[in-house]
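A protein record pairs a chain with a discrete description of its three-dimensional fold. The following entry can be read in just this way:
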Amino acid sequence: MCGRNEGALFMFDATTDARDDSETPFVNEGAGDAMEIDEIPIGERYFVTDGDATVGPVDGELLVRGIHAGKVPLDAMVWSTGWERWRSVSDFAADIGVLPSREEAKASSKLARVSDLYPLQLPPTDAQAQTLAECKTLNEAASKFLQLAAAMTGADCGWVHVFSRQAGGAMITLEGQGPRAQFGVGRTIDPSDQALRAARDGRMVISEPIPGVVGSAVAARILATGVSPTAVLMAPVLCGGQLLVMLELGLATKAGFSATDAAVTEQMGRDLAAVARKQGWHRA
């Protein structure tokens, strides 16, 4: 595998992402190990992200036990099918009566990791990986990546940008999907673009309908496809430390991208990175 997107590096890009610890609500002070769980959401499936790892789908009972045991960061975000927005783990835990006391939270804060949760099986991407492996050039693979990711996530529009040595190492828009996408092909992304900076750091971005700085940069480009997005997703593909491909997708017909959408897209990005390494596209 190549680049920093070998792990699940997700950026939750919303106004709720930067929570002040002093504002994090705590309940059940002094409850300790005797804490009673009001409601365990058995049968529900959840996705959890802390900005550095996204795990899911996770069984509801496992998630609740993890929160109660102090193994899930309270400032992480959680999402389940049917929810319009991601929620903080602390708010979710408070609603079902499993929020640790302040003392318990402090004791476990250095140990809590989203990656401690064990995910359920995600949709297979073997067929998509084979399609990418058959590509002969980086441009062909990037074009397929856009098509495959849009189909797997149900995206209504999108762009794929590729690294160009001929353009001095700039990221050039290769292809787009949307009624006006043809007019954006061949454009260069400004090096100071916030989304491009995140991509070069290997960060995938899932943006809420009210995006932050990075999500706003993606949404502005997605709007140029002729579709007004309600949510956007950006996925980078790195190999040998070099950003080769930057994928941007937009939704207009459903509430938002799920963590499953992000995980599947990231897996296809890894598959593309593996092909790039084998073909030496990062050195060409």
Notes: The beta strands are 10-13, 45-49, 54-59, 77-80, 87-88, 157-164, 170-177, 204-207, 231-239, 242-251. The longest helix spans residues 259-279. The first strand starts at residue 10 and ends at 13.
